[in-house]
Amino acid sequence: MKQSFIRIGLLGLSILGISLLHYLTPLHLHYLHDIFQRFYYLPIILAALWFGFRGGLTCSLLVSIVYAPHILFQWGGQLTVEMEKYLEIVMYNIVGSVTGLLAQRERERSLELQRTAEGLEESCNKLQAQSERIIAIEEQLRRSEKLSTLGEMAAVLAHEIRNPLGSIRGTAEILRDDYRPGDPKHEFIEIQIKETERLNHVVEDFLRMARQQPVELRDCSLREELETIMTLVSRDAHERGVALSLEAGTDPAMIRGDGEKLRQAFLNIILNALQATPTSGSVEIVLDRDETGFGIHFRDNGSGIAADNLQRIFEPFYTTKTDGTGLGLAVTRKIIEAHDGKMDIESKPGQGTTVSIHLPLPTGGTES
Ligand SMILES: Nc1ncnc2c1ncn2[C@@H]1O[C@H](COP(=O)(O)OP(=O)(O)O)[C@@H](O)[C@H]1O
Ligand SMILES: [Mg+2]
Which CATH superfamily hosts domain 216-368? Predict the structure, then answer.
């Protein structure tokens, strides 16, 4: 808009300037008049280029109107003598309208081309997003297939194992009372009880996986859940000699989520981090926020994970620990995905691991 005004102003000024030259130059210098007469083409062509057919024609008509009195009154206006000057007026108008038409057509074509290009780019982006989604869904399907068959088996097995396990533990506890502490048999029985406990944990993990419990979405504060976890694991961290810290700011970080499941997920990640970190190492947890949601980063400077294993750690039952179940991260990922979240892991062997979770803001909530 502003640019158009400037252009119109420029055209007006140049026409005025050229006309002044015409009217003020003495008639006997007619070679100068011949030159000035051609100067008019400049604003006419510019107007045509800038404003198309109508602009070109308007400008050439205007020039004709300003120039005509000059011919009529100053040159005497005899048709035979001033033929050339009248012809020039006709030329002004032809040049103005033809150049305008051409410029306009060119501009329309380039606009159309631009629109086509934009359309193409848009559909290309759409296609790309779609194919990315398909790949993600495919992968999720593949995983859930594996999880569901494994899960069903696990559920049956877990039920079968749990009851006898309870009896073993119960009888072991009765037997333990028959032997004093220090007696080797007392120790054996202790081991027996501990091992049944461990087995029970494994079974519980299996069950948790198998039962595809739906998440129950409520308002929940990520900061509070993290703080709860901190009190839960701080003793464990202290015993290991690992510095555990949480940087959560003042934002309560409200989302719609299942607090209990999220705690389970965070706990799995933190326990992994603690287990991987040697004495005097550190585990840092940071909660932050961007436009789309909350990020929670669990950074440890422990053993790290070799690139080959990095792809496998989310597989159910993949573990590198003698007493691991390999279910922690599989369960964790399921929980995060049930919250429409994303989970990333970065690791450098020997330097440490960062697990990052991204959880979206509640829809229709505080996005704006
Ligand atoms: N923070 C970490 N640092 C190093 N290795 C890790 C970390 N988190 C997970 N891992 C690797 O991923 C494997 C799978 O973890 P997980 O699914 O929790 O099962 P588990 O802890 O029972 O082994 C672990 O055995 C370990 O090798
Ligand atoms: Mg684990």
Answer: Histidine kinase-like ATPase, C-terminal domain (3.30.565.10)
Tokens 């206006």 map to which residue? 77
The better pLDDT of the pair 208, 242 is held by 242
Q: What is the pTM of this model?
A: 0.55
What ligand is nearest to the CA atom of residue 343?
1
For the Cβ of 205 lying below 6 angstroms from any atom of ligand 1, the answer is no
The mean of the pLDDT values for the chain is: 88
Q: How far is the C-alpha of 185 from the C-alpha of 178, rounded, in Å?
A: 9
Structure-block tokens of residue 115: 């629109």
Decide: 314 in ligand 1 pocket, CB within 6 A: no
Long-range contacts of 24-30 (CB under 8 A, 24+ apart): 27/74, 27/75
345 phi/psi in degrees, rounded to 5:
-135, 135
Task: Say which range, 211-225, 266-280, 291-305, has the weakest mean pLDDT.
Answer: 211-225
Is the predicted pLDDT of residue 366 greater than 60, yes or no?
no
80 with 36: CB under 8 angstroms?
A: no
Structure tokens at 148: 């569901």
- Please tell me the predicted confidence (pLDDT) of residue 162: 82
Q: How far is the CA of 321 from the centre of ligand 2 (A)?
A: 9
Note the ligand closest to the C-alpha atom of 324: 1
Instruction: Give, for ligand 1, the residue of 313, 332, 351, 355 to mutate: max count of ligand atoms closer than 8 Å to Cβ.
Output: 313
pLDDT value at residue 81: 64
How many C-beta neighbours within 10 Å does residue 348 have?
13
Q: 3-state class of 354 per DSSP?
A: strand
